Amino acid sequence: MAPFHPRTICTFLTGVTVSAQHTLRALSAATVVAALVTGCSSANSDANRSSRGSTAGVLDIGVVSGPQTDNSNPFLGTSAAANLGYRHMIYEPLVMPNDIRPERKGTPWLAKDWKWDGNFTKVTITVDERAKWSDGKPLTAEDVAFTFELIKKYPALNVYGVTYGGVAVEAGKVVLTFAESQFVNQSKILRTLIVPKHIWKTVEDPATWPNRKPLGSGPYTLKTFTPQTTTLQAAPSYWKGKTRVKELRFTSHNDNSAQTTALANGKSEWSNVFIPNHEQLYVAKDPAHHKLWFPAGIGIHGLWLNTTRGPLSDPALRKAMAMVIDRRAIHVQAQASLYPEITNPTGIPLPAGEPFLAPEYKSRTNKPDVAGAKKLLERAGYRLAGGVLKDPAGKAVKLTLTDPAGWNDYVTGLSIIQSNIKPLGIDAKVKTQSAEVWTASVANGDFDATLHWTNSGATPYDMYQNIMDGALLQPVGKSASLGNYGRFDSPRATKALKEYANATDDSARTTALHTLQKIMVEEVPVIPTAGAHLGAEYSTKNWVGWPDESDPYGPPQPTQPNALDIVLRLKPAK
């Protein structure tokens, strides 16, 4: 790892280690923030002084994503801004979501009002007239319309894969129209990060632009960037008022143990790293201040299978593998019982997802069944010869299981899976990569099988759509950054997803969702291994106001869209 950024007159970098822990939507990353030297002034408010001396006004955030490339394009999931999560501190959404309470209406942000028509094919957005860019220019409906036109023109920027129709400004309001119902995409559309027209209109190719001097409407601007640490500082002014946190330092490290150490010794204050023995390694180091909260969503972690590769194109093999994987062992040994255990073969987390279960799966449970899996494979033409599984063509079944080095929960999970499928005669090896290489490999379809998260939402739709939607299908070698990494090609699943999205009543949605559950169980595009959470660790030593069970105003992860809302709510500890 390259050395940390040297001291400057007003700031210094702490040796914070970070680990990228996986989140349900999108993206996994962590950030580390720096500390201001006593006596230095910060933008966006008064001189930065407090009893905490050199750390006054600073928040340290950590993620395990390895060395980063200088890229602050907010739309690209592979950019440093996305990996570390700092895009949400610079660019703002129309509406601030709360993904652990998705049934609630989002908080007005850049939009002070929005109205959908009855069939969700049109939304009218009223932009808050107070909104400004950090360079002082007003943020207007023209900027919002320009952003959606940009996303419509460049598919690589379409983070949520929404099919946009008309984009117009009418009587000072933004009007978006769609050919089909956007019932399932309401939140995705309204959480879109808005970019300034006066900057982006001159960009030749926004889909590849590294945006090394990002300018947004948020309260922070980029101060310094290194492959290990990105520092943000408060903008000279912010349209929603003054910020208490004057500087953020996002540091990316290579493994979970380094980030855990940083959390334990107080050098890092906020992370979503996986800590296997969290009570001993983290909480006990400072019981009064070291906190963690792991709220759940309706999404999963699972073994994504590349259905275009060799034996994994056969659903019989995928189903047999699913029948022998020990989820309980993964829950206890790999995930320290922090993640919700997956007990149902549909992958729907319980009890939150219980109302959505099809009747035929309500009493089904995930229990390893090696004998049953062997019978299934035998019926499908496989044979076991000398302890080696041969496919119907007589070729030995070999797999490579990949995940980033240092992601201990995932790597341990892969080792358990490797052991679980061995009795079937499957020769599997575990391979680790850098987080950056792995992210690209998964997007491009260059893998056999990998543990990865899914999207989550108010219903299982978002999870299944992320896994199975043919609209996200890309050929191997072309980035599938929005999902369907396993290249699962199922017209039936795509049809059911579309029927759910366009349904006009709950009965039709229920029918479509039951179809998706059956496909998940019978064709196994992904093997569910654990329920997803949106949890994180944070310290109350210097900052208070974090979300928790008593005040669940948002998920606590630093890379989630609501991370800015958290930062703005934080207050210095007394």
- Which structural class matches the secondary elements? alpha+beta
| Largest β sheet strand count, sense and barrel closure | 7 strands, mixed
Q: With helices defined by DSSP (H or I, 4 residues minimum), what is the helix count? A: 16
Provide the β-strand percentage band.
Answer: 15-25%
Q: For the CA atoms, what is the radius of gyration?
A: 24 Å
Amount of helix:
10-25%
Number of strands: 24
What is the distance, rounded to the nearest whole angstrom, between the alpha carbons of the first and last residues?
36 Å
Mean pLDDT: 88
Shape: globular
Output the strand order for the largest sheet: 10-11-12-3-13-22-14
- Outline the low-pLDDT stretches: 1-54
Structural commentary:
Helix content is 25%, strand content 20%. It is an alpha+beta fold. α13 runs antiparallel to α14. The chain has a 7-stranded mixed β-sheet with strand order 10-11-12-3-13-22-14, with helices on one face. The protein has a 5-stranded mixed β-sheet with strand order 19-18-20-15-21, with helices on both faces. It has a 4-stranded antiparallel β-sheet with strand order 6-7-9-8, with helices on one face. The protein starts with 10 loop residues before the first strand and ends with a strand.
